[in-house]
Amino acid sequence: MYLMLENTQILYFDLQDFTVEVIHEELLPFYLRSNIKKSAAMKDILGNVQAVKSYLSSRMLSMSRDNAKKIYAAFQIPQIDTVDNRVNICIKCKGVSIQDSYWVQEEGEEARWEDINIRKNKLKDIVDLSLGGYSPTITTSAICPELTTKGLFRKGWVRMGDSLYLLKSDKTTDCVNTRMEILASEILSCFENAIECVEYVGDDKNMMDGMGHVSVCKNFVGEEYSFMEACEIMDYCRRRGFQYREYCLQTWGAEFASIPVLDYIIVNTDRHTQNYGFMMNNKTGRIERLAPLFDFNCALVADYFSHDARDTLSQMFNTKETLRELAHQYIGYTNLVFREDIFMQVVQNNPKYKYIFEKVYERVQEMGLAKP
C-alpha cells in the first residue's frame, strides 16, 4: 500500500511483511518525518512498522466521541478500540480526512485523489447520526469525513453551497458549551493584530434527545494546504533537536504569542496540542503559516459557572505552566489591540451574559490591553 499526498506516492508500506519504504521524505506528514529508520536492524524495522501503524491509527475518530459507536455501527465496523482495529478502519476508508490531503492507496488501485477528495466530491452526509444521535442505518461507502474527524463532542459535516461546514453541539443542559463557543468567537473578534480565529455562529437543530443548539463554522482547509497538528510539529522538532517554542516565536512572533493570551482572556481550558496547528504547503511539504485558531467549546464555561480557572494547567505545550502564567509570559511578544467599541456592542447584544463579560474585561485589563 501507499501513503499518498494528493496523487504523489510518498511512502510504501506492507505491515504484514514488515516493510516500510520512504519515497518522498519532504512530503511525509510531520508525524513520520525523521521517524523512519533506514537501518536493517530488527528493532528499527519493527519501529518503522509501529510508527506507520501509530500514524494511521491517529487519523481515526475516538470511541470516546459522542455518537462514535453509532457511526461505527453504520459502517459495520467492529467497536474494538485497539491500534490494529483503527489501522484497519483507516485503510477501509482510505484515511481520507477533511483536514489534509493524505490518503491510503492499495497497490494496483486506479483511484486518484480527484475521485475520493471529500472536500470536492459529493459529501456522504451522516450528520443526523453523528450530530443528532439518530439510530444508524447501513452505510456502504466508508469514504466519509466522520470517521476521521477528531474530538469528543457530537459533530457532523454538511455541504452548504460550495463550502463545507462543521456543526457541533453538546449534551449539557441548554447546550452551555456550544453557546460559550459562539460567545467566545464574538469576543475574539474584538482583537486586532491577533492570530486569525474561526468564526462560529449559532443555530437550532433536532436531536434524538430533543431540540439542541449547535455551533456552525466553515472549513478552513482548502486544496493548497494541509492542517498539521501542533503535537506533530512538537515531536518533529524534538527528533531534530529544535526548540519548538523558540522556533514558533522566531517564525510567527506576535501572531503565535497571541494564542496563550487570547486563551487566557476567554479562559479556554482545552487548548491541547491537537487543538491548534499549522498549514503545510501540499506541493513543497513546508509549513508556511499558522492555522486559524479554532475549537472554543470549553472557553468561558468556567465563567458561566462562576469558577476561577485562571490557574488551570495549560495544555498548549504539555508543561506545568498555568493559563495565567503563559499569558503573562507571552503578552510582551504580542501587539494586540483591544477594540472596546466592538466589545461593548457584543455586550449589548448578549445582556444575559453580563457576569461573563465582566470577568473577560478584568482579564483584558490584567493583560494591559484596556484603556486605563
Would you kindly provide a written description of the structure presented here, covering whatever features stand out?
The chain is α+β, with helices and mostly antiparallel strands. It folds into two domains: 168 residues, no CATH class; 142 residues. 33% of the residues lie in helices and 18% in strands. The chain contains twelve helices and 13 strands. The strands form four sheets. The protein has a four-stranded antiparallel β-sheet with strand order 3-2-1-4, with helices on one face. Strand 11 and strand 12 form a beta hairpin.
Keywords:
372 residues; alpha+beta; 2 domains; four-stranded antiparallel sheet
How would you summarize what this structure contains?
It is built from 12 helices and 13 strands.
